[in-house]
Each structure stands twice: as C-alpha cells, then as structure tokens.
Specification:
Blueprint (H helix, E strand, L loop, with lengths): L5 E6 L5 E2 L12 E6 L1 E3 L5 E3 L3 E6 L7 E6 L5 E6 L4 E5 L2 E7 L11 E4 L4 E4 L6 E4 L4 E4 L17 E7 L2 E7 L5 E4 L14 E4 L11 E7 L2 E6 L2 E6 L14 E7 L10 E2 L4 E5 L2 E4 L1 H5 L6 E2 L5 H9 L7 E5 L4 E6 L4 E6 L10 E5 L4 E7 L2 E6 L2 E5 L9 E7 L9 E15 L3 E8 L6 E6 L22 E9 L3 E2 L2 E9 L4 E15 L1
Parallel strand pairs: 2-3, 10-14
Antiparallel strand pairs: 1-41, 3-34, 4-5, 5-41, 6-33, 7-8, 8-9, 9-10, 11-12, 12-13, 13-14, 15-16, 16-17, 17-18, 19-20, 20-21, 21-22, 23-24, 24-25, 25-26, 27-28, 28-29, 29-30, 31-32, 32-33, 34-40, 35-38, 35-39, 35-41, 36-37, 36-40
C-alpha cells in the first residue's frame, strides 16, 4: 500500500529573522539560520533589501561621513567629507567647500551637530570646526562671530558632541576622556564662562575609572555613555522637558554595561539604541522604569556580533536609524557587513528581528526624510531600487533544521512548493539537505512569465502590488532522504522586488530509525 504524502508548511519564512544562538533543531520555523541581503517587510515577509545607487560619483573621493544641516531659513545643506576635504551635495554633484582654518586635517572621523542656525564638527585632536553658510566655507571655531573675544578657556577638542536642550555637550578629548563640557545657551562657539561649564565624572563611578564614548538625550535626561557604565543626569525640573546644568543632578549609574562605539548611538524618538561589548542594547525602557532590564536586541545573533567587534576598529563602526524603513543599521566596514534590526515590534524575548547585508562598501549611513544615504569611496549613494549601482546582488535564505514532528523516522522528499511575490520570470534556486549535511541538492526554477498587471490580495492586507509584481506558487520535484531537513533559497536580484510568502514540503515517511 502506497504511503500518502505528508506536508509541512513554513508560512512567512524567516519572519523572526536570524537566530544563530540556539540549537537549530529546537528553533521555531519562523527563524532563519541565514538571511543575507534580506529585510523583514511591513507585511511580515522575508524579502529582498533594496539596492543602492550613487547620487554623486567622484572616483576615489574617499568619503568618510556626512551631516544634514537645515538653517533658520529652511535652506538645506547636505555636507559630506573625506579625510582632508569637505563637500556639499546638491543637484547630483559634490561641490568642494573651502577650509579657511590653520589646522592640517588628515582624518575624517568628525561628529557633526547643529545648534541655533550653525553646524559644528568635532574630532579629538582638532579645534572644532563650523560651517559658515554665508561664505560657504568651513572655518575653525575660533573664527566664529560668536566666539568670545578674550577667552580664558578654549573650546574642548572633543571627539564626542551632542546638541540638546539648547546647548552643545561634548566630551572625550585626546588627553582627557572623563570630563563632560557644555556650551552657553544657544551658542555652540562659547564654552567660556556664563552658563557654560564642565563636570568630571570620575568621582561618580564606583567601580574604577572609565572613559566617555558617546552622549545621548532622551525625555529631559542627558545620557553619558562610558565603556563600562552609563550615567544618567537630570535636573530639578520634574516635567522633564528641559535640562538646566545649573541644577544638574545624578539620576542613575548603570554599571557593568556601556557603549563601545560612538557612532552606534541612535535615538529613535522613543528609545536609544547603542552597541555594547556584548551586543546591541536598548536603553529606553530602563530610563522609564529603573526596575526594567535593559533590552538586548541582538540576543539571537549575539556571538556573531561579538566576533565582529573583536575584529573591527570600533571608531569605524557606523549606524543609522530609518523611521520610514523601521530599521536600525549597524555597519562593520572591515567585513563589509551590515546588521539590520527591524524596529517595528520586538520578539517575545525582547530581541529584534535581524537580517544581514553583505558586500556593503560604505563608510557611513544616515536616515532622514524617508531616505537612507551612504558615503562610499566613489561618492554619495542612496538606498534605492533593486540593483547595486547597476549590478545584481544575491539574496539567500536558509531555514532552521526541522523534523516535521517525527524525529525518529526518515523522510523521502518528493516535492517542494515555493510561493513568491515577485516579478514574472524571476529565476531562483531551492536547496535541500538532510541530517546536517553541508552538501545541498539544488533545484532551479522560475516564476511564470505573465503580462504586467496589478493585483488585489485582500487576504494579506495588500491593496495593490507594484505594477508587474504578482504572487506565484512554483512546484518543484525534489529528492533525497533523511530524518532532519534543511532548505535554502537563493536568487539574483536584478531590478525587481521579491518576498518569500510560503514554502511547502511534501514527503513520504520512511522507516523508523
């Protein structure tokens, strides 16, 4: 008597993102052991990331960072810089900005901030700079019109800067990494007298000294991120809408965890995300309720993140938060990898859904106005389309290991069915392997060629797909046998979007082991 086919369905494959921490056989089918060049889309599907395109190309310009500055007249200046030059991007071109200072600048690790119609740049070992919108030049801060005429205290040559509560807050000089400075109100050029001041944090720390790595502001609090501690300051104003340094007071010291990378800190509006030596953390809930633990949003890929930290110059680690894409990007440039944390809603264990992008040769990221921008050795780029500057890129997804509820029986694989939402005629490869074997059997297929049309799929709360994008279930004859199965999906993305809706597995049960 013939054994009937048995079916297992993986609906919304990879919806929970990567999980490389737990044993693959015990994972929920929503997790992935590999999700490369993917995102979790707003419908909860694993889909291809967008590509990127150069907005302004200049071979070997070597861009290292960027800052968007909007002046009081709502004029926008999009500034970018290399190790020794500054540029403004406008209308598809990069225009070099003259530097009128006296310093010899050889490093482009600036942190740029905006205060009261002026843009400032800070980097350890250099006098701070500011952007003169009238003359369209970069100048040393001592040339600013609001700089004190006879200063008794020079502006700190800080590596860390924050614009918050009407002042500039800076820290981490080359020879002093434990003093917090703040400027006069609404004057980022004046750190001399008035309501400007400074605070040495060493006496606050109870478990040895530390160094300031980054600064943040949230709900009327000032957050000082050290390597092994986080110090939270407030003031006597209980409304928590402003911070007056005249009544600055210590709110809390969180010991044993800190921030290791200045440019990993991102304020999402409701939270602050940062990179610690043990992974990516969320601070917001801890500030609101001291009894609540700090969220480890990289919990499911923690060991991978730690390994990357150990092989990376932390000064080069960059990040961005995009509200429109609902993701936090964390870039490790030496390995060309970007970890993508979906910020829509956390998983049950508090972690975020994670995917990885590879071959990302970018030096900085910035998200605003619904766009994500990246600096590149050859110019300024935008997260856009479904090609990497005109070239295809490879999307890869591998399931966890699963036994279809009968670990003691072998399975004879008979057929696979993959439901994709993509353009017609999209080629792809499905792979299968049994019992942790790394040698996969590959099956090539493609979606059907259909005329360009639009669809209304109410079942998935989708009013309309992009023209030419449709749902297609492709059935593939398959073979092989074993007890524990793993599947893979790979395809070249070359101009069209793609999401994986469902994978169905058809097997016949074999002998009992």
């Amino acid at each position: 008597m013939a054994t009937p086919l048995q079916t297992a369905s993986i609906a919304a494959p990879g919806f929970f993102g990567l999980n490389t921490q737990e044993s693959g056989i015990t994972l929920d089918s929503g997790f992935a052991l590999e999700a490369t060049n993917c995102v979790i889309d707003r419908y909860g599907r694993l889909g291809a990331r967008k590509g990127w395109a150069l907005l302004a190309e200049d071979a070997d310009v070597g861009l290292k960072g960027m800052h968007r500055f909007v002046d009081i007249d709502a004029t926008e200046y999009f500034g970018v810089w290399s190790d020794d030059s500054f540029y403004i991007y406008s209308g598809g071109t990069l225009t070099e900005v003259t530097y009128n200072g006296t310093q010899t600048i050889t490093e482009g690790n600036w942190q740029a901030v905006t205060l009261n119609d002026a843009a400032y740049l800070f980097q350890a070992g250099y006098e701070p700079l500011y952007f003169d919108t009238v003359g369209q030049v970069i100048e040393d801060l001592s040339q600013h019109e609001q700089y004190p005429s006879n200063p008794t205290k020079q502006p700190p040559q800080s590596n860390v800067a924050l614009s918050a509560y009407g002042r500039l807050w800076t820290a981490s000089e080359a020879d002093n990494k434990t003093t917090l400075h703040w400027s006069n109100l609404l004057n980022g050029a004046d750190f001399d007298g008035g309501t400007a001041g400074e605070l040495e944090i060493s006496s606050i720390l109870v478990k040895g000294n530390d160094e300031i790595i980054a600064l943040g502001a949230h709900n009327g609090f000032l957050i000082v991120f050290c390597k092994q501690n986080i110090i939270i300051f407030g003031d006597s104003d209980t409304s928590q809408t402003y911070l007056d340094p005249a009544t600055l007071q210590l709110v809390e010291v969180i010991s044993g965890v800190g921030c290791i990378a200045r440019d990993s800190v991102q304020n999402t509006g409701t939270d602050i995300i940062f990179l610690s030596e043990s992974g990516v953390r969320s601070l917001g809930r801890t500030i609101q309720e001291k009894s609540q633990p700090m969220r480890d949003i990289s919990k499911n890929v923690r060991d991978d993140i730690v390994r990357l930290i150990q092989s990376e110059n932390v000064a080069n680690i960059k990040s961005a938060y995009s509200e429109s894409n609902a993701f936090y990007l964390l870039s490790f440039p030496s390995t060309k990898q970007v970890y993508v944390f979906d910020m829509r809603s956390p998983l049950q264990d508090g972690a975020s859904r994670v995917t990885v992008w590879n071959n990302m040769e970018f030096t900085d990221f910035s998200g605003f106005d619904g766009e994500v921008y990246m600096t590149h050795n050859d110019g300024l780029a935008r997260y856009f389309g479904y090609q990497d500057n005109g070239d295809s890129y490879r999307m890869q997804y591998y399931t966890n290991y699963f036994d279809m509820g009968s670990p003691a029986q072998t399975k004879l694989l008979k057929r696979l069915a993959v439901t994709l939402i993509t353009s017609s005629g999209q080629p792809f490869t499905v792979k299968s392997a049994f019992d942790y074997n790394s040698l996969y059997t590959s099956y090539t297929a493609s979606t059907v060629e259909v005329p360009v049309a639009e669809y209304n799929v109410a079942e998935y709360n989708i009013a309309e797909y992009t023209s030419g994008i449709s749902a297609d279930a492709v059935r593939i004859p398959a073979g092989g046998n074993g007890s524990i199965l793993q599947l893979g999906f790979e395809t070249e993305i070359d101009g069209g979007e793609l999401s994986v809706q469902k994978i169905d597995v058809y097997v016949k049960q074999g002998r009992i082991l």
